[in-house]
Model the fold of this input.
Amino acid sequence: MNGPHEERWKEDGGNLVAPCNANDATGDHPPSLIRRLLGTVAYEPTWRAQQKFTAERTAETPDELWLLQHEPVYTLGLAGDVRHLLDASEIPLVKIDRGGQITYHGPGQAVVYLLINLGRRHLKVREQVRLMEQAMLDVLETFGVHAERHDGAPGVYVADAKIGALGLKISRGCSYHGLSLNVNLDLAPFHHINPCGYAGLRSTSLANEGVVTNVDVVLDRLAARLTELLDRDYPIAQ
Done:
């Protein structure tokens, strides 16, 4: 790692390895939730930093939200089929360890990575997925955009067009990866893939829906709503 990630590992120790699982709860209230603003960053070093954080966190490590944009990249999940990349492209393809198929990340997209001890917050994976979707739905409503879930297809949609995606990896009872919400990015790269493995799936963005805003505003609202939902003591509707 380099840049801000390297500095953070020096600050936080970075050499402690301990289990992180459902038995790690150390009281009724989890530690505070830390937000980290990373700016626009390359994909692979940020992914590796998440793996390192998760491998080295302890039962006392606070959960974190990483708020960022990515340089242009396609990512392909563990069971992903490379044939969902329809055309050769100068945009790099990175094969990663989350679930799901192929998606695109680039400037103008709000990305939040959730580095969460699920057991300490009494969350199951499905509940965290619902929580992430709910945060995106709620933030979109603040801009006057009504979105919805589609059964069997995680993420959030405006009519038949996808505006928000998500994917997680659970390791030692803790999550990493997270969600992405399209703000004002160039949608053209989505035309060269079957987004999330669905042929013909349209993509949209806040800008495409007539909303004038920027990624920083959206990231701030997402972080605030995610914090509220993660700190609540009652479940998201199933």
Observations:
- The longest helix spans residues 125-142.
- Confidence is low (pLDDT under 50) at residues 1-27.
- The two ends are 39 Å apart (CA to CA).
